[in-house]
Design goal:
Number of strands of chain A: 5
Shape of chain B: flat
Oligomer: heterodimer
Order of helices and strands of chain B: HEEEEEEEHHEHHEEEEEEEHH
Structural class of chain B: alpha+beta
Largest interface: A-B, 58 and 60 residues
Number of helices of chain B: 7
Structural class of chain A: mainly alpha
Strand order of the largest sheet of chain B: 9-7-4-13-14
Distance between the termini of chain A: 37 Å
Number of helices of chain A: 10
Radius of gyration of chain B: 25 Å
CATH superfamily of the largest domain in chain B: Macroglobulin (MG2) domain
Number of domains of chain B: 2
Helix content of chain A: over 70%
């Protein structure tokens, strides 16, 4: 059954959308990653206007991260103070990101920016994941133990001013890097339609040296609020949030995530991670290819000028 | 079913024509037109629509020779003047920016752009015969028959920055993109004329059609001169939940954004509850 999306202004088969929601939900349930960085490119590939894809995906991420954030809240496995400082940066970042987005949309460059941002980030993350998982596979074959970096040692981060005490994380560090991380994630959420967990989680572990038990909860806490803010800002500035599209993706995503979580426990980790990495790299290559290959028609049209 | 609809519309049209014949005493030729739907609603399962325009040409004989009121004038001999129908349908006007990509550092980037004003969001021409055989250039540009005769306005800044030839390529690109999107089209045999009296045309409206008021101008030509015309004003509107969502998003964007967030929070929370229980 075809369904007409009121904001994207196009008809798409509902099973395609449900299937995409389920597939991405399955992957995120299995690997514990937010699906934004896969879903937004997929939406663009099926012809949803990139601006609508980004803003709508931000809306969907609100829903897909709220249950996780609530679960961590109940278990007290999140650092509320750290989350709020991240959020301060994230709020400014999302305003900044939406402002850039609106500006570029007006001059017809927003699609290019979205593609470039994706090629860059998917390229980096995909290759890092691929390297990591290949190493893990090799180590698993060799029978060697995977080593973990010990937290606690001092870095340049500890020399910065405006120090704050974060009880839950047992940290006494400067607020500057925390706000900066929040800011970057806010910008990415606004211009890419991602939660930004893939940047935030490693940054918290390796830069801030936060204990891993509060990292995911704190990250989800910040994601819920930042993507909610981005949804509202995009609604006001660019009118690109498609509630109907978000709902359909959600329905598929919720089901997919539950199945993914069950399957993920039973299957072997390293190979699957390598597979996900390959998928990320493939999406990156496809987006990059579309930028480089000569378009069939050099001209494009946009309705509704600035009058 | 379609044939039945056509037959029905034909009967309806002749009835209309007959009635008009009774009431009008003008000596000029007239056309009476109608269509199967005046409002096209875009609902959640909208995949496009087909409407049929139908009508009749009313020929009034010499006053002294008025036939029985309900009898339509018989078909004239073939040697007489040739009559044709042209239907021009235009969707709501909008501004359209045409952008041209250029290669910058290996990637294709939007570069030059020209904004056109007064661009119909939908445009379709149908006629009984190839338009070139029916109407001359003057007539075509007067009545905007054929996309190349659309009177699009170019922004002053674009006129200052580009040569006429440049603007023409942008204009051609605009028409090409619209045609490819199924929004512009022409069918030179799209109007079927029966016995020089009844006519009908089928109009296919694609799923990506813009909303707003349309104008269908039906022109009756005799030997290349417009002798009668009649406009129809179909409306394309989003309806149901689609309409509600679209209107809210544009008229109260802040409320819309807050609803979107509330809905997402509720959905996520509900899902968590459901799956925690199972």
């Amino acid at each position: 059954m075809q369904i007409y999306l009121p904001i994207a202004e196009m008809s798409v088969h509902i099973l395609l959308l449900l299937g995409m929601g389920a597939a991405v939900g399955f992957l995120s349930g299995m690997f514990g990653v937010g699906g934004g960085f896969l879903m937004t490119p997929l939406l663009i590939f099926i012809g949803i206007p990139p601006a609508v894809a980004v803003a709508t995906e931000a809306n969907q991420i609100v829903a897909s991260s709220v249950s996780g954030a609530l679960a961590h809240w109940r278990r007290r496995s999140l650092d509320l103070k750290m989350g709020c400082v991240l959020l301060a940066g994230g709020g400014v970042g999302s305003f900044f990101g939406v402002a850039i987005f609106s500006r570029l949309k007006a001059i017809g460059q927003v699609d290019l920016m979205i593609s470039l941002a994706y090629v860059l980030f998917l390229g980096i993350i995909g290759s890092l994941m691929l390297i990591e998982s290949l190493q893990a596979i090799r180590k698993a074959r060799g029978g060697a133990q995977t080593g973990r970096r010990k937290p606690g040692s001092h870095t340049w981060i500890h020399g910065l001013p405006f120090k704050m005490r974060f009880r839950q994380s047992k940290l006494y560090i400067s607020a500057i890097p925390v706000v900066l991380i929040g800011f970057v994630v806010g910008v990415l959420a606004a211009i890419m339609g991602v939660g930004g967990g893939f940047i935030m989680v490693p940054a918290m572990i390796y830069l801030l040296r936060m204990p891993t038990n509060v990292v995911v909860g704190t990250s989800l806490f910040q994601i819920v609020f930042v993507t909610a803010l981005v949804t509202v800002l995009h609604s006001v500035n660019t009118q690109t949030v498609d509630i109907l599209l978000a709902l359909i993706l959600l329905a598929g995503g919720v089901a997919g995530a539950q199945v993914g979580a069950i399957v993920g426990v039973k299957l072997k980790g390293e190979q699957l991670r390598a597979l996900l990495a390959a998928l990320v790299v493939a999406v990156c290559i496809k987006m990059g290819f579309d930028l480089v290959v000569m378009p069939a028609d050099l001209y494009s049209i946009t309705s509704g000028g600035t009058h | 079913m379609n044939r039945l609809a056509l037959k029905f519309s034909g009967i309806l049209a002749s009835a209309c024509a007959g009635l008009l014949f009774l009431t009008q005493s003008s000596t000029s030729e007239r056309i009476t037109v109608n269509m199967t739907a005046h409002q096209i609603s875009i609902t959640s399962n909208f995949t496009g629509a087909t409407i049929t325009l139908f009508g009749a040409i009313q020929k009034i004989a010499e006053p002294s020779l008025v036939p029985h009121p309900l009898t339509l004038v018989p078909v004239r001999p073939r040697q007489g003047p040739v009559e044709d129908i042209i239907v021009v349908i235009k969707g709501p006007a909008e501004d359209v920016t045409v952008r041209r990509k250029e290669r910058v550092a290996g990637i294709w980037v939007n570069n030059d752009s020209v904004t056109f004003q007064n661009v119909p969001g939908f445009y379709f021409v149908a006629s009984t015969r190839p338009i070139a055989e029916i109407a001359d250039d003057t007539l075509r540009s007067q009545n905007e028959i054929g996309a190349e005769h659309l009177s699009l306005l170019t922004e002053a800044t674009a006129l200052a920055n580009n040569t006429t030839a440049e603007i023409e390529t942008f204009r051609e690109a605009l028409l090409r993109r619209k045609t490819r999107a199924g929004l512009y089209g022409v069918n030179e045999h799209g109007v079927e004329l029966q016995d020089d009296i009844l006519f009908n045309m089928r109009l296919r409206i694609p799923a990506n059609v813009p909303v707003g008021e349309y104008v269908a101008q039906i022109l009756l030509l005799r030997d290349g001169i417009v002798v009668g015309s009649q406009p129809l004003r179909p409306v394309v509107a989003k309806s149901g939940i689609e309409r509600w969502i679209y209107n809210l998003a544009h008229s109260m964007p802040l409320v819309y954004g807050l609803i979107a967030v509330a809905m997402a929070l509720l959905a996520g929370w509900t899902a968590a509850l459901i799956f925690r229980r199972s």
